[in-house]
Amino acid sequence: MSALWRNWSGLESVTPARVVRPKGANETAGAVLDAVRDGLPVKAIGAGHSFTGAALAPGVQLDMSAMSGLVSYDPGARQVTVGAGTYLYDMPPMLSKLGLAMANLGDIDRQTVAGALSTGTHGTGTRFGGLATQATAMTVATADGELRKFSKTRDPREWPAIALAVGSLGVLIDVTIQCVPAFKLHAVEAPEPLDDVLGDFRSRCTGADHFEFYWFPHTATALTKTNTRVPVDAPGEALPGMRRWVDDEVVSNAVYSLTCRLGSAVPIAVPRINRLAGRLLGHRDFTDASSSVFTTPRRVRFREMEYALPREVVPDAVRRIRELIDSKGWRISFPVEVRTAAPDDLWLSTAYGRDTGYIAVHRYLREDHREYFAAVEDIFREFGGRPHWGKLHTRSAADLRELYPHFDDFLAVRDALDPGRVFANPYLRQIFGT
What we know:
FAD binding, FAD_lactone_oxidase-like
């Protein structure tokens, strides 16, 4: 009997009919054929970091952990091919040996490469797309048991569907990533008045390589993060080891865990706690390897909803969320996070065809997120928001079709590659309709 599987947030769980741990591409394709023979659906799992049921596998669960590491390297093109089960946190040390880096990363690196690309994970920066835009080729085990190599250049008509498919078109075996020469980031982090940041949002985003901010509800302060790309040999000091440990582990994780638990038990204390958090997470100015600046450890568990909005409406949407929280009298301990991305041409990308801003709301694991998320989601809907595929939302195919110009084109590719819905699960039926 298979063991119960839960995702990182604990919201999704399932006991698969069976678990298979393939050690190679042929074993993966064989496991797919065996599932089809037995009439069972198939889903591959990575880190389980999606808050949605994207990886839920009631039939055959494919544990892809053995399919990791460097597969090949093209030095002329600066491209690496890695196993789909490779964790994002393993990419920087692998690439640094080659003098390379990923062009952009999100702020969490616990996901696998396949999971991050498939759900539309992104970083921040108006000139940079999500992680899926860094892919140039993929090997996929399809529903007929074939191993198919798709390429951005060789398969231009199918690639906009293949590159970001929420796991609906097959099982990713390996991914080829377009890298860049290794670089550093000069990071400046500072608390600023929220109203000033919102008023200057457009210029702050376009004037920096990477800009984001966090707003703690019940305060008037935003914690801004401005990162500038500099050569790998540029002068500048990294944070001292003890300072980084105190900031990232003691303050951002241990202390914040205690304050979240206190806020959950005594909600009236949340505004004071948030003001304290804003003071503790103060000024920092340092230069370090890009991956060390992009990502931070997140050990406090939470639930999250994130939407992609047209970038120009982001300030108004944040103001609406602030008014909502005040009017409801809620006590929200987790910050609201705001980032940006460049437009791209991937059919299911949340940044498809438009300059994009992202707003993410969170609740501590021990708090009920549903009322807060539902009300904020209504605001996002008013502004034409698209939900992150790996984070909580209630949208379904009926209204998602209106948000994605190539929604039906994607479904046509799905019909061609998986007509029997071998890779379907309840979440995919919700968002695709069948």
